[in-house]
Amino acid sequence: MKATIRKMGNSQGVLIPKAILLQLGLEDEVEMEIVNDALVIRRPRIAPRQGWAEASQAVAAAGDDSLVLGDFPNADDAELKW
């Protein structure tokens, strides 16, 4: 199958027919790499944000979830005139 390279804003791209996307199970994201002068497009190996919930629970359980910069109170706001 041949496809036309089209201008898309400041970039260029190739439209992938919906039937091919469905057949491959491609949805919102893909991984791309060049292998032996060929562009290979595949489903992401890891789902986006996979494991983030467990990692954040582990951080909280370790008590390491305090604010890095601390609070930013508006103590100086009393001097402002509006």
Annotate the secondary structure layout.
Blueprint: E1 5-8, E2 11-14, H1 18-24, E3 31-35, E4 38-42, H2 52-61
Describe the 3D structure.
The protein is of the alpha+beta class and 82 residues long. The protein has two helices and four strands; from the N terminus they run E-E-H-E-E-H. Strands 1-2 form a two-stranded antiparallel ribbon. The N and C termini lie far apart (66 Å).
Characteristic terms for this protein:
two-stranded antiparallel sheet, alpha+beta, 82 residues, 4 strands, 2 helices
Oligomer kind: single chain
Helix/strand-derived class? alpha+beta
Q: SSE string, helix = H, strand = E?
A: EEHEEH
* Total count of helical runs of at least 4 residues: 2
Shape: elongated
Reported for the largest beta sheet, the result is: 2 strands, antiparallel
Supply Rg: 24 Å
Strand content: 15-25%
* Average pLDDT over all residues: 86
Separation of termini? 66 Å
* Lateral strand order in the biggest sheet: 1-2
- Low-pLDDT stretches are none
**What proportion of the residues is helical, as a percent range?**
10-25%
